[in-house]
Amino acid sequence: DTAVSQTPKYLVTQMGNDKSIKCEQNLGHDTMYWYKQDSKKFLKIMFSYNNKELIINETVPNRFSPKSPDKAHLNLHINSLELGDSAVYFCASSLEQGYYGYTFGSGTRLTVV
Amino acid sequence: SQQGEEDPQALSIQEGENATMNCSYKTSINNLQWYRQNSGRGLVHLILIRSNEREKHSGRLRVTLDTSKKSSSLLITASRAADTASYFCAARSQGGKLIFGQGTELSVKP
Question: Which of A23, A59, B3, B61 has the fewest CB atoms within 10 Å of its CB?
């Protein structure tokens, strides 16, 4: 009965590979997000989708591509992984684009070697 | 540029003491939120204060907001060892983005 679930929890991969992180929420929220947390714990928004429509697309490399098949799912695909992509990636969801608090997943720790 | 900045970056107190964390932001906001992150876990929403509110309480938490100074503070009263975590403020801009500060690492010693 997890509210926002991300898979996998850990991901270790070699440079140049392509990987995906999946996110699902069962809260009935209409907006979902991807955040990146670096080694200094700084959280940076990457993307936001509202009812499957992309509404926030921060300056991230084109190698990152979000996909939202429905409003309960927001996946993140990363092409040609680089060492600098190593971080913890958090999925979150909310009602009405942040007028209310966000619910975060437990994170995916990506390590690129 | 980063929306929220927090002070102090680290805070160490004894159980039973109060902990105060401050946050400043740069642009107009719709609301300001505080989150807790335990080591290796996701963020947990603690409290939200809207731009037309000045103070809000939730259990042992008290949040203030001063929009003229673009600042907020989080007070945790009667702290417990279980309160040890990183605390983040996040400002929700008029444009809809929720921008996080760098966080305060709180250590509560038993």
Answer: A59
